[in-house]
Amino acid sequence: MTIDFYWRLPSHGCHGSLRDTAYDRGDWSPASPRNVAPGLDRNGEDDGFRYVDHLSAIAKAAESVGFIGGLIPSFPNTDDPWVISPLLARETKAFRFMIAFQPGFLNPVHAARMSASLQRATGGRTVFNIITGGGGPSQLWWGDSFSHDDRYGRTTEFLDVFKGVWGGEGFSYDGRFYQVRDGGLSPLLAREEIPEIWFSGSSDAALQSAAKHADYYLSWLEPFDQLTDKFARVKERTAALGGEQKCAVRVDLVARPTEEEAWAEVRAGFESLSPERRQQARGGPTDSIGAARQQALKPSEATRYDELIVAPNLWGGFSLLRGGPALGIVGSYEQCAARLDELIARGTDAFILAGTPHLEEAYRVGEEVLPLLGRSEGFLLQAAE
Amino acid sequence: MTIQTYWQLDVAEDAARSESGARRSGLFRDVRTPGLNRYDYYAQVAQAAAQTAFDGLFLPHRPQSDDSTIVTAAIAREVPRLMLVPEFPASAGSAVYAAKQAVSFQRQTRDRLGWAIANPADGATRARDGDHVPEEQLHARTEEFLTVARGVHAERPFDFSGEHFEVQGGGFQAPLKRVAFPKVFLQGESEEALDLSARTADVHLFAAAPLPALRNLVETLDTLAARAGRAVAFGVIQPVLARDDAEDARRDASRVGLPDTAIVGTYAEVAQRLADLAALGLRHFVLAAPSSLEEAYRIGQHVLPRFRALTERVAAAA
Question: How far, in Å, CA of B53 to CA of B15, rounded?
């Protein structure tokens, strides 16, 4: 058995440390003398670098320590993964580009053509994280006014067409959202592999769509029992439909040589938070079920960092320190590996990991944590059963 | 006004070249790895254009071959100077998303992107492409696409509710909004196409045509644009074949089968014909020839310097 480990390319800027909420890598925060890759040198002149140069460094670090690739997130203020991936295609060797995108924003026939072209450019290193949108004002920002359940219906049809045209010429489709007559990719494009599809979304509408089209069902980290139930439900639903679903977890790590050092880092990050930042972390309106499950942790109401320790090595305050889910893993290298082992034993087939800062932590996690996997007591017991 | 020259990187040309599936082996020891692929050839053509002092690359939309926007990004970091103008259809997807991809690209490449929106395809092609916008609304859809894409780049909050696109509270924030929106290249000779360009194009690219026909089109569009209170720059997509010797040029032209509108001749003749086009007011020259790599060198080395000398003389005289 082997497990796929992905890293993340922060397409939204990167923090130099968890202790600092300013994005001092990239140009998302106002330029300061210590900023990396804002395109300006110390005299305010263009230094010739762009943020993609920093992302390139992270991708190369990740591939060199054995990560299979990296997730490239997509939000209103990120750089776009469909642009970042081909920009980096020819300077990376093994790194797989996991493109996060909302299917509603592209014509599926065009998306298939772009994907096959990217497969050709990379030697088959394209992976998709299909997201169907969190609803609320953000969807309208994107120019998408579809309701939650309609969006999942549209995602299903999108993937019907995407895979259909990939089957070659003579494909027709008559759906609610998409119609194609006598379409299909040319033989040159159709001979590429269809990218692996990772799917998110916790609602029933999402699970139906995932069961039909996803290779991996991707979840944020949730408390382990809750996650185990969720994965069991996903696998059961897919099996009922005659499919097979692998499950994956996306989780941030703070891994240090000792547990004390790891918690000291988290504590310092927590204590450096401004009241405004804490307020922002309460989040906006959303119809995402996953987001609501995470918000139930209420990290913004904690007064001490250790109120948010929900289980051994599990901390529920990451959303205070950076955008994204609340729960992450904190501990020594051995403990981090043991928690990942436990998740594997509970049905996790793949991971997207991340740490701050993304470049240095790619080396740390790749060199210190990944080699320890599969050695913890719980894992060996489970494997023996 | 300066002349901009673009080499056409046509992904469908020389289709077998560097295609790993089309490799032939023989007596030679073949050490080519699967990692060597078609994109290495695209990068070579791009570098040829850069090294022979073209100003940019134009990548036509070829539905049977690699997607022009993917190719553009894949080669962008290897040609740090060239303007890159991929052509794509307005049916590609959401205008907001297209704009977001455009600004991401601009951020990473120092504003080197141009947008060429393809002419509407015929009905059967559109049906194959999952594009079910009715024929009579195609130009209106392109116009909305551009209005929304430019709108979310220029304004925040941006609201729009049209036939084809809808946005509420849209608009990019810093740092995405700091870059320039790509220059928009439109095409077509129909009345509708010229009307649309008068209202929305930065550059209108005409198909190659005899001089009098191009003169008429330029005058018509110039009048329409002036009426809309705008200025549109003009350009042409011009097939060329140039050789040292006129006889060689004719012989090679007959071998590759060029369109009637191609300019075929000696280096000096081709340069003169291009200068005649420049005298009509054309400023953007997309030059194209089969065998993109070899011809880029030939045109870049022998025709462009003569062409520049001729147009600079005209400009100086004016």
Answer: 25
